[in-house]
Amino acid sequence: MKAEKIRFPILLTILLVTGCAQLKVKKIKEETGKPDSYELVTDWPNLPENIAFGEPTGLAMDSNNNIVVFHRGGRPWSHPAPKDKIENNTLLIIENETGEVLKNWGADLFLMPHGLEIDQENNIWVTDTGLQQILKFNSDGKLLMTVGEASVLGNDSLHFALPTDVAVAPDGSFYVSDGYGNSRVLKFSKDGSFLFEWGKNGPDRKLNKGNKEGEFNIPHGIDIDKNGNVYVADRENNRIQKFDSEGNFIISWQNEIADKFFSLVIDHKNERLFGIARLASNDSIQSGFGIFRFDFNLNLELQFGRTGFYDGPISKYHDIVIDNEGNIFVADLNNNTIQKFRLRKTD
Fold it and tell me: Could you report how far apart the first and last alpha carbons of the chain are, in Å?
């Protein structure tokens, strides 16, 4: 079913990372290390000097437990994005243990990389907030599907407004968080046909956002558990929302520890949910990011990072992924790197 095409203004006002006034955040007492805690792996990854590695915006894991990274190849964030595509490679496959680069591709394909997903067939899905599209590639980089009209913003079923992320279900259907311009989640069939949406959309960004159940203010990250439930990182509302596969609201978790909840990922092996959130001090100066672990009922089990006992570099996490061994990988925009955390070794 095709929705009626709606005209979309050329000028779009959106909330960016440095957007609205920050919430006041209470100070969290520093924790000490626990057996069920994590430590930073300091010698990972091992990127050669000839790789033009830009802001890493998307992370995923393939069937070989290798880490796939979607990055901006030296291009800084901007909206509107430049019209010329990034000349450098923008997709890396990194060997999990050694941190060595196995594959490096993606030149001349993207305007503004953002979200990343790997499906069960090792297909690579990305969102591009400059192209206003979702693109699906096979593991060799062959383009298999494109959803959305290139560089055309909109709010109907055929157009997006800076889509942020994509999540693929086992049956091949997929969800898109759309994102900065609209405030909605859309579901598509395996062949890319529009099925339904929830949230808000329209030409007026100020009217799009909402904070009620099933509404969003920048849905920034999205993932699916084994039962088909959909989890959304509702960034500016600083919360996680959980829905069933039809978009019906189930439960939410309101973050009162940090001030913006950026992204999340399902740990399928251990049936947990991990997420990342920004901590700002009371004068709105960025203090860094924290990592959070939940059960599927959104009960908080563990937190670390700038909200806990980890005292490493001040980072700006944009995405997160968990490997089969429980190691955590986060994309750090501040330092243009990927941080790897492993469970703390105990005697």
Answer: 60
